[in-house]
Structures are given as structure tokens and as C-alpha cells.
Automatic annotation (TrEMBL):
It is found in: Bacterial flagellum basal body; Cell membrane. Keywords: Bacterial flagellum, Cell membrane, Cell projection, Chemotaxis, Cilium, Flagellar rotation, Flagellum, Membrane. It comes from Sporosarcina thermotolerans. Residues 254-322 form the Flagellar motor switch protein FliN-like C-terminal domain. One of its GO terms (biological process) is positive chemotaxis. It is a peripheral membrane protein. Belongs to the FliM family. CDD domains: FliM (cd17908). This is Flagellar motor switch protein FliM. The keyword Membrane applies. GO terms for molecular function: cytoskeletal motor activity.
Length: 332
């Protein structure tokens, strides 16, 4: 195993400590000789690498921006949402961290198998409900037994928010999330085993004077088929994907409808400023071209064709007689 290499600052700090007597050479030898043991908890097995956690963070930061716009429009007030934490913990620990009564949105994300849980703090849930009912957005902080009307209102609100979840994951996989059920007691959740590793993304949300957390719990078994996609290499490759035949057809269709300025150059001439200021009606300006010489047709300012002048139905026109390749203009 390669040894750690000290930086120049660390070397200077050690020399300074030795010279001042803060540290002795014997103590350094003893510390170097001791074994360095790191505690590993097999109940909290880390299934995701730091690179994959960063990818999940980026995805849900985008989701937070989309949710901010969505909830601001639905609740007709200013909302602040940002990612606060991203942790991987056992499912049992996630259950214990929640209050006894809270709002749990359980939704499926086909084609991935399994459930994803969105836990909404009671204070935030009732603030949203109060805003939707025309109130100022004050939360009671307690969830006992929601009425059917309250459940239906919140169900509609969160079901439409899943479109933003779908959009946030588009760069990784096309999913079709839908709400399967709403629960208020965490003890009734029997979706996965207690020791299963889950990723918990915590969002801090502020609605007016109320604030709280929204937690999204994603089990490892749900993300397992797409874990390789949660890497920087995949993100870089996905940005270089070739366009599909349908995209090429649509692009060609739009290009054919694009308008371009076309001009015909009759010739070129030079004159002095004094001659230019002395121009009068009926004066003739020599253009340095013979009548039988072809004219140059410019498309978007670039020479593309040669033509000859003519007339069509009492209107001036030109007839294309040839095309110009790159460099033909310089050869003339």
C-alpha cells in the first residue's frame, strides 16, 4: 500500500512543532507504530460511491428548482426549496427518524421496480393545505386523521408534482411515476426490509412563515438496475448522444422553412470621396464587368452561384447558370 505523502505545509508544521518542543521524535515514532483501525458497521453498508451520491445530488437539485416553480404557481406564494442533505442509511433508521404521524406519499416509478417514499413534514403539509383552501399558509404541525377532502386535495397536489420528478430524471432514465397510496403512520410501511440501504434526500422548504423538511427515500433495490448510469462518465457520454432519425427529419423540415437573404452583385467599382460627393443624376459608374460576364449570386452574404441577368413579366431577374465552390471567389 503506498504511503501518504506530506505536503510542504505539513512538513513545515511538523518541523515547527519539533523545534518548539510541542512534539517529540519519540511520540512520532509511537504514533507511527500504532495500528490505524477504522470502525465499519455492517448494518450500514455503503452501497453507493461518492461519485454516485454526487450524481443523485445533482438530479435532486434540479428537482428542487422544478418543485419551487411548481409549488409557487399552485400555492400562489413564494416558495424556497433546496437540497439540505443526501445520506445512505438503513431503512429502519429512516423510519425511526420520522415523527409518529406524518404525511407519506408512496409512489411507483416504472420501469424501475419498487416504491419511493416522499415524507412531508406535517407543518409543511398543512401549510400547503391552508394555502390551497385560501388561507395564509399557517401549519398546525399535527396530523391526526385527515378527512377525505383534505386527502384528495393533497393527493392531487403531489400527483402533479411527479411530472417534475420525471423531468429531473430524464438524463438518466425515462420513468413514469404515479402515486400508489398515502399513509400517515410510518409504522405501517412494509415496503422493504429494515436493513435495506436507502438513499434519503432531504429538502428544506419554506412557505411564508412556515418551514420544514420533505424527505425522499429511494431504496437501493430500486436504483440497482441503473447504478452504473449514476457516474460522471455516463453523464459525459449522454451529452454526446447522436440524434435519432425522427430528430433529423424534424431538423431538416425546420431548415427547409428557414428564409435566407439573396443578393446579386452586378460588379464592383472604386471612386474617390470627391467623386462620390460630386455624383449627379444620370452619371454612369463603371463596374468593371462586361455585359456577357456572369453575375455573382450571394446567399447570406456568401457567394454560391453564377447567373445571367434577364427579365420576367416586366420584373428584373437573374437565371442561375452555375454554382460556386469554396475558393472560387478568390480565384476570380
Amino acid at each position: 500500500m503506498p504511503e501518504d505523502i506530506l505536503s510542504q505545509n505539513e512538513i513545515d508544521a511538523l518541523l515547527s512543532a519539533l523545534s518548539t518542543g510541542e512534539m517529540s521524535a519519540e511520540n512520532m515514532k509511537k504514533e507511527d507504530g500504532t495500528r490505524k483501525v477504522k470502525v465499519y458497521d455492517f448494518k450500514r453498508a455503503l452501497r453507493f460511491s461518492k461519485d454516485q451520491i454526487r450524481s443523485l445530488t445533482r438530479i435532486h437539485e434540479n428537482f428542487a428548482r422544478l418543485l419551487t416553480t411548481y409549488f409557487s404557481a399552485q400555492l400562489r406564494t413564494y416558495i424556497q426549496i433546496h437540497v439540505a442533505t443526501v445520506d445512505q442509511i438503513p431503512f429502519e433508521e429512516f423510519i425511526r427518524s420520522m415523527p409518529n404521524m406524518t404525511l407519506l406519499n408512496i409512489f411507483d416509478v416504472p420501469p424501475l421496480e419498487g416504491n419511493i417514499i416522499m415524507e412531508v413534514n406535517p407543518n409543511i403539509a398543512y401549510s400547503m393545505l391552508d394555502r390551497l383552501m385560501g388561507g395564509a399558509g399557517k401549519g398546525t404541525g399535527l396530523i391526526n386523521n385527515m378527512t377525505e377532502i383534505e386527502t384528495k386535495i393533497l393527493t392531487n397536489l403531489f400527483e402533479r408534482s411527479f411530472d417534475n420528478f420525471r423531468e429531473a430524471w430524464t438524463g438518466i432514465i425515462e420513468i413514469d411515476p404515479y402515486l400508489s397510496e398515502i399513509e400517515v403512520n410510518p409504522q405501517f410501511l412494509q415496503t422493504i426490509s429494515p436493513n435495506e440501504t436507502v438513499v434519503v434526500i432531504g429538502f428544506n422548504i419554506v412557505i411564508g412563515e412556515s418551514s420544514g423538511m420533505i424527505n425522499i427515500c429511494i431504496p437501493h433495490v430500486v436504483l440497482e438496475p441503473i447504478v452504473p448510469n449514476l457516474s460522471v462518465r455516463y453523464w459525459m457520454q449522454s451529452n454526446q448522444k447522436e440524434s435519432t432519425p425522427e430528430q433529423n427529419t424534424e431538423l431538416e423540415k425546420r431548415l427547409k422553412q428557414t428564409t435566407l437573404p439573396i443578393s446579386v452583385e452586378l460588379g464592383q467599382g472604386t471612386m474617390s470621396i470627391d467623386e462620390f460627393l460630386s455624383l449627379q443624376v444620370d452619371d454612369v459608374i463603371p463596374l468593371g464587368k462586361r455585359i456577357e460576364d456572369p453575375l455573382q449570386v450571394r446567399v447570406g452574404g456568401i457567394p454560391k452561384f453564377t447567373a445571367q441577368p434577364g427579365q420576367v413579366r416586366n420584373r428584373m431577374a437573374v437565371q442561375i447558370i452555375g454554382s460556386l465552390n469554396e475558393g472560387d471567389e478568390d480565384d476570380e
